[in-house]
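Lab notebook, bench 4. We co-purified these components, and the gel suggests they stay together. Before we commit to crystallization screens, I want a quick structural picture of the whole thing.
Request: model the full complex, all chains together.
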Amino acid sequence: MGKIASEYLSQLEKDNALPPETLGRLRGGGDILSVFWELKTLLYGGVLLLSSGLGILVYKNIDTIGHTAILCVIGLVTLSGYVFCFRKNPPFTWEQSNAPGILFDYILLLAALCLLIFIGYLQYQYQVFGTRYGLATFIPMILLFLSAYYFDHIGVLSLAITNLAAWAGIVVTPTKMLAENDFSDTRLIYTGIALGGFLLLLEVMGRVRKRKAHFSFTYENFGVHLLYISLLAGMFQFEAYDYLWLVAVLATSFYVYQSARQRRSFYFLLVLTLYTFISTTVVLARVASRMNFLQTVMQYVTLSYLLISSVALVNFLIRQNKKFKK
Amino acid sequence: MIPAYNPAGLQQLWLLRESHKALHQGKLTDEEYQLLVTKYPTGFYTPNSFIRLGLFILSQMAASSVLGLLSMVLLLTASEKTYGYLLLFQGVICLAGLEYLIKRKKHFRSGVDDALLWMGVAYLAGGLYLRYSPSVSLMVLVVLVLTVIGSLRYTDMLLSVTALVALLAFTYLEYPKAGDWAKLTLPFVLMALSLLAAWLTGRLQHYYRYRFHENCLKAVQVTALVGFFVCSNFYVLYELGPNFIAWPKAFYALDTFFWVATIVLPFALLLLGTILRDRLYLRLGLLYLIALVFLLRNYYHKMPLEWVMTLLGAGITLLAYLLTRYLKKPRHGIVSFRLTSQNLTGLEQAEALLISHTMGSTGTPPPQYPLGGGSSGGGGVTGNY
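Here is the predicted assembly.
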C-alpha cells in the first residue's frame, strides 16, 4: 500500500470516520477500473461514423445499387434495431427506467437515425407525401417522441425536439441556433417564442403529472434558450418597443428563477442571470447612446455600470448559491 | 512555497478526494461517502461549476471595467511604458484582492479567485513586457517564473500547465541556436524533457508531502504526455515543422524512427493503461489512436472516405460491443459497468445534447412554409441530397 493510502486510512481511523469493516474494505487491494464511459465514447464514435459513412455511400452509389435495394437495407437495419429494443426493453413505466445495457442505447439511436433516413429517402425518391412537406417532418417527429417515451432515451428525445423545431421552421441545435436561423424574420421570432413556451409547458406537464418527469431538464433546457434568444431577437428587431421586450425577458427570468429554486438548479440560475444581464445592458446602452451631448460622461457611466453590475451579480450568485445549497 | 489556502481546509479536501476515488473504485458506498462529506467540511466557498463559470465571467468583466476606467483617465498622456506601469498596478490589485478573498472569504475554486489569479498573472506579464520590451525568450522565462510561483502558491492547474509549456517553449527557442547539431537533436531533447516531466510528476503524486498539488501534478503529467506525442509525431515534425524551423538535411534520414514512434505510441499507452489500470494512459492511448487513423488517412487515401468511415464505424462499434461483453466480469481488474450509482444526470444530459448536435442537425427551413415547414426530416436527412 502506498504512503498516500496509508496516511489516508490512518487519518480515517484516528477520526473514527468509518466503521472498522469499511476500513478493512478500504485496506484490501484489488482496485477495479470501470471503463464504462470510455466504451460509451467508442460506441458513440462508431455509430456516428457508421451512420455518416452509410449516408454518403448511399448518396454516391444511388444509381449503381438501386433505390429499392437501398431502402430495403435501411428498412432492415431499422426494423432489426427496433425489434432488438422491443425485446430487451423492460416493461413500460412513466417513471425512469434503466437501459438494459450500453449497447441498447446505441442500437436504439442507430435504429432511430435509420428511421429518419428511411422516411426522408422515401419522400425524396418516391414523393410518398407529395408536396405536403409538413407531413414529411411531422411523422418522423411523432415516431421519435414515441420512441423516446417508450424506450426512455433522452438522446432520442433531444432528436425529437430538434425535429419538432424543424417542423416549426427553426434550428435548435445548440451550436447552430444563432448561425442558421434568420432572426430578422419576425415570423421566426414569434414562432421561437411560441415553441419555447410550448416546450416549457411540456416540461411542467411532465413534471406535475409525473409522466417521465426526468425528461423535464431536456424540455426546459431547449425551451429556455429558445425563448430567451427569440425575446432578445425581438428586442433587437423592434428597437422602438425594447422596453416591452425587456419586460417579457424579466417575466421569463422570474419564471425560470422559481423553477431553478424549486429544483436547486445552478445551471438555470446562471442562464437566467446572463440573459437578463445582457438584455438589461442592451436597453441601458441604447439609452446611453441616445445622449450624444454627454458622450464622454456616458463612457465613464457605462464602464462604471459594468463594474457595479458585475460586482452586484457576483454577490447575487454567491447568495443564491448559498440559498440553493440550504 | 506555502499554499495560500487554509491548510486545514486543504487537508479535508484531500481526504474527500481520496474518498471519492475509493467510491469510484467500488470500495465505498454512496452512503459512506456522504458520511465522510458531512464529517469533513472544508470551510471553503466552492460553488457549483455553473455558478463558478458565471462568477468567473462577471469577475473578468469587473476587472476589465476597472482597467478601462483607469485607462480612460490616463489615455491622453499615456506612453507604452506608462501603460506598462498601469498593467503592473492592475496585476498587483488583482493578486491583493485574491489574497483577501482567500484569507477572509475562504474562496476556493469559486470562479472569482480563478479570474483574479489568471488576470493578475496576465497583467503582470503584460506590464513587464510593455515596460521593458524584453526578447521573446526572456518573456517566456518571465512567464515560466510567474506561473511556477502562481501554481505553487495557489495550486492552480492552468498555471502549472502554462509553466510546462513555457519550459518547452524556452527550450524550443534557445536550444537550436547552438547550431545544426542542436536543431537535429531538438525533437529528442523535447521528448526527453516531456518524458522526464511526465515521470517526475507521476512519481510525486504518490508522495504525501505533495498531496495538495496533486491536481497540478496530474495536469502537468497529461500535458507532458501530450507534449511527448507532439514532439515525436511524424506529421508535426515533417509536415508542420519546416514552417517553424529549418531542419538540417540529416534530420530527414530519421523519418523511419519517427514513423515507428508515431505508430507505436498509442498501442504502448493502451498496454500501459491496461497493465497499470490507469485511466489516463487508456484515454490518451485512444486519442492518439484516433490521431493515428487521421494521419494514415492523410498519407494513404486510395480508399474512398465513405468506405473508410463505414468500415471504421462498423469496426469500432463491433469492438465496443465485444469489449462490453468481455468485461462484464472483471478481467485484470477492469470492468465495463458503472461501479457507483451516483447521480450522473449531468453527464447523461450532456451526452443527449451532443447527440442532438452531431446527429440531429437539420437544414435551415425555407421561409415560405409556416408551421409544418422545414426541408428536413431530421437526423441529418434533408430533402436535398
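The two ends of chain B are 63 Å apart (CA to CA). Worth comparing against the SEC data before the next meeting. Strands of chain B lie at 334-335, 376-378, 381-382.
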